[in-house]
């Protein structure tokens, strides 16, 4: 099944062109190895999941619009690996996650902390390959 088949089936809504462009810009130029992490249907909308890729904990999110995002799981304020357990939301239309520790909000698109823009978490490439979610590093 291709992505367009999934989209036609209503199972997947592709990210907005703006989000796709911004994600592409954020991860542009990096060498990329794609690691399959789970089935798309394993991800519940607005609930994060944690994947271990090459020894790195990566927080993966599927938003209500069907888009996928991947950021580092480590909350830089507390040092705890908890961002996959944060509350997903939006701020000014930007998809976000709030750390369950001290509640700082991070952009899922850029990884920047919207409460303290000097702080950010890594952003990873993420894609759908048939029904399999893959993270790129
Ligand atoms: S190990 Fe995944 S959230 Fe803590």
UniProtKB/TrEMBL annotation:
Pfam family, one: Rieske_2
UniProt domain Rieske: residue ranges: 35-135
UniProtKB keywords: 2Fe-2S, Iron, Iron-sulfur, Metal-binding, Nitrate assimilation, Oxidoreductase
Coiled coil: none
One GO process term, biological-process aspect: nitrate assimilation
Keyword flag Lipid metabolism: no
InterPro entries associated with the record: NirD, Rieske-like_NirD, Rieske_2Fe-2S, Rieske_2Fe-2S_sf
Molecular function in Gene Ontology: 2 iron, 2 sulfur cluster binding; metal ion binding; monooxygenase activity; nitrite reductase [NAD(P)H] activity; oxidoreductase activity, acting on paired donors, with incorporation or reduction of molecular oxygen
Gene3D superfamilies: Rieske [2Fe-2S] iron-sulphur domain
Protein name: Nitrite reductase (NADH) small subunit
Source species of the chain: Thermopolyspora flexuosa
Organism phylogeny: Bacteria, Bacillati, Actinomycetota, Actinomycetes, Streptosporangiales
């Amino acid at each position: 099944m291709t992505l367009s088949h999934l989209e036609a089936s209503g199972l997947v809504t592709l990210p907005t062109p703006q989000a796709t462009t911004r994600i592409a810009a954020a991860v542009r130029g990096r060498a990329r190895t794609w690691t399959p992490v789970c089935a798309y249907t394993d991800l519940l909308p607005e609930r994060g999941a944690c994947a271990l890729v090459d020894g790195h904990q990566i927080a993966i999110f599927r938003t209500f619009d069907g888009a996928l995002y991947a950021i580092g799981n480590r909350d830089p304020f507390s040092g705890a690996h908890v961002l996959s357990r944060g509350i997903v939301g939006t701020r000014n239309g930007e998809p976000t996650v709030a750390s369950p520790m001290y509640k700082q909000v991070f952009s899922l698109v850029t990884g920047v902390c919207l409460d303290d823009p000097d702080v950010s978490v890594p952003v990873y490439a993420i894609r759908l390959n048939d029904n399999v979610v893959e993270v790129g590093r």
